[in-house]
């Protein structure tokens, strides 16, 4: 009986470990996706600012 309990406990532990690993990988991929979207938003914002600067001053924004 104790051996059966031990085997079930080990299987449950391994399954929980797999779930943790899958969750971690999903979170990591999620953060990578968020970073890509943020980079795209930043690029669009920089482009918008450059266009507005050009329209206001008649010359492109000079990056430092």
What is the percentage of strand-forming residues? under 5%
Straight-line distance between termini: 73 Å
Q: How many strand units?
A: 0
- Main beta sheet: none
- Strand-and-helix sequence, N→C? H
> Average pLDDT across residues?
85
The oligomeric status of these chains comes to single chain
Q: Find the structural class using helix and strand composition.
A: mainly alpha
Helix share bin? over 70%
Radius of gyration: 26 Å
Sequence stretches where pLDDT stays below 50 over 5 or more residues: none
Summed up, the helix count is 1
In brief:
With 64 residues, this protein is mainly alpha-helical. It contains 1 helix and no strands.
Provide an overview of this structure:
- With 64 residues, this protein is mainly α.
- It has one helix and no strands.
- The protein is rod-shaped.
- The model has no long low-confidence stretch (mean pLDDT 85).
């Amino acid at each position: 009986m104790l051996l059966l309990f031990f085997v079930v406990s080990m299987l449950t532990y391994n399954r929980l470990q797999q779930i943790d690993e899958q969750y971690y990988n999903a979170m990591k991929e999620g953060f990578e996706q968020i970073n890509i979207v943020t980079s795209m938003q930043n690029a669009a914002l920089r482009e918008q600012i450059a266009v507005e600067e050009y329209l206001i001053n008649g010359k492109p924004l000079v990056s430092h």
